[in-house]
Amino acid sequence: MDNNDVLERFAWVIRTYGVISSDFYDRLTIDKPSRWTLRQHFGNWEGSIQAAKKLLSDRGIRVEEKKRESLDIEETPVNEEVIKLTKQIEELTRHIQTDKLHLGGTSHKFGYVTDTHLGSLFSDLALLDTAYDIFEKEGIKTVFHSGDFCDGIRVYRGQEFELSVHGADGQVNLAVERYPKKKGITTYFITGNHDRSFWKLSGNEIGEKISSKRPDLVHLGYQEANIVVGDGECTAVVRLFHPEDGSMSYSISYKAQRYIAELPSGTKPDILLMGHYHKAEVLFYRGVVCIQGGALQAQTPFMRGKKISAAVGFWVIDMIVGPNRIVSLAPKFFPIRS
């Protein structure tokens, strides 16, 4: 691992667990740089801590300062499995964001894209440019993106042969340099399972890296994020959502209906913008308007072999919010092929 990779992974550990003792670090049963590796790169334990804290501080991330000496197994009997499970839950909570963004005003027009899969040979960059040209002409200031910003790696066997750009840094740089940039337009996005592949392999959170280099691309977390739209009593919740399961097994609307039906009472959004399946539809079910966003990626050989179609296109959505409800919603789809 080079210096940047070591620091990225160690910073993730510090962000997740707080500033911990070297003894507790040794007991963590996770993929992490060894203390010998840290010494090689940063001189000693304190130097490693300071380097990680500086990296996180530069990204606007505060780190818990409390030392965790009390978690030393020899001094305080603790259940290691409980610690591990607690940290897994904390990490999941950190990535699945809710109510992160509030957009004022009761009348909105926004763009909607999803599954751009940058770094794939089949990502339609020309269509992505066209989408943002239309958003600009429509006077749109806000665009939502429901995940799979980049194509990732090792998501399925043989994916490496369908990539135009390999590695986390390469795909981040592609996103930073190539994703459309229009004055006055801000894109709010979540990361999906393809983006998450880098985190699973090396602890690389590419959504945060992209946002740090492109202020107009705002990362709202992994898998799910709520956006509150409106003012006072006139508000609605728009949820960006990127599932992780397989493709359709019954009908286009089946997975969306199951997700909405299984949500606990009081947690349903008003509008659900769903990515992942590369299907396009508008569904009104149990009080939720679900818009499946399609994709900005053509059918890949993997999808063709699995008999999975791709609805390629993007959306312009007009909405008006009234007291505790949506007064009107007008989604307009720009289809290319399906």
Verbal overview:
By secondary structure, the chain is an alpha/beta fold. The chain folds into two domains: 3-92, no CATH class; 101-337, Purple Acid Phosphatase, chain A, domain 2 (4-Layer Sandwich). Helix content is 34%, strand content 24%. The protein has eleven helices and twelve strands. Strands 1-6-7-8-10-9 form a six-stranded mixed beta sheet, with helices on one face. Helix 10 links the parallel strand 7 and strand 8 (271-274). Helix 1 packs across helix 4 (45-58). The two termini are 42 Å apart. 36% of the residues are buried. Mean pLDDT is 84; it is low at 66-78.
Rg, alpha carbons = 21 Å
CATH level-1 class of the largest domain: Alpha Beta
Poorly predicted ranges (pLDDT <50, ≥5 residues)? 66-78
Report the count of strand segments: 12
The CATH superfamily label of the largest domain reads Metallo-dependent phosphatases
How much of the polypeptide forms β-strand, as a percent range?
15-25%
Q: Largest sheet, described in full?
A: 6 strands, mixed
Shape: globular
Classify the helix fraction into a percent range: 25-40%
The structural domain count equals 2
The CATH topology name of the largest domain reads Purple Acid Phosphatase, chain A, domain 2
**Average residue pLDDT:** 84
